[in-house]
Amino acid sequence: AVAVATIALKTGAWWLTDSVSLLSDAMESVVNLAGAMFALAMVTIAARPPDEDHPLGHHKAEYFSSGFEGVLIFVAALAIVWAAVQRLWSPQPLGSLGLGMTLSVVSSTMNGALAWSMLKKAREHRSMALEADARHLFTDVWTSAGVVLGLLGVAATGWLWLDPVIAIAVAGNVAREGFSLVQRSTDG
């Protein structure tokens, strides 16, 4: 529910402002939802008791969730860079920045609360899938904060090129997190 609300808020922020950095933030939220759905499936599989084919249990299924989310994050980073480069070549004026940034901050607050709760549960249950999803949500919170600060810079300076540059920075942060998740998954 939080993921769907976040997608709606961030998509609304992008629609109001036509900011490619807010679009990149919304795209990352779509990845959050896909990752959360896959994590739920893997946690459900991991909870199954041992059977003849898996005498030690199914707990390794959670590592697939982390790896899958990492790959999704890479795809989102590529899409963000594609959109940002297009906007860098053809800058566009931004509109309704105040309302757009407010929607972004509200969605970020929701994500932060959810991530904190998920990380607490992940530690309690020693769940790799929950931890990966929580860490991705925390990355989303910091990304959103960077986007809002960057858009404040656009508003203060009028430098339209700053919006796509922020989006490319978001993509770099997203790709770094994706690499980390894939690496931890394969290590597991």
Largest sheet: none
Structural class: mainly alpha
N- to C-terminal distance? 29 Å
Overall mean confidence score, pLDDT: 85
**Low-pLDDT regions:** none
User: Could you tell me the strand content as a percent range?
Assistant: under 5%
Q: What is the compact description of this entry?
A:
The chain has 188 residues and is mostly helical. It has six helices and no strands. The radius of gyration is 18 Å and the shape is elongated.
Structure in words:
45% of the residues are buried. Helix content is 84%, strand content 0%. Helix 1 packs antiparallel against helix 4 and helix 2 (20-46) runs antiparallel to helix 3 (61-89). The longest helix is centred in the C-terminal third of the chain and has 30 residues, at 128-157. The chain is mainly α and 188 residues long. The chain is elongated, with a radius of gyration of 18 Å. The protein has 6 helices and no strands.
Compile the SSE list and pairings.
Layout (H helix, E strand, L loop, with lengths): L1 H16 L2 H27 L14 H29 L7 H29 L2 H30 L4 H26 L1
Helix pairs in contact: 1-2, 1-4, 2-3, 2-5, 2-6, 3-5, 3-6, 4-5, 5-6
Could you list some keywords that capture this structure?
188 residues, mainly alpha, 6 helices
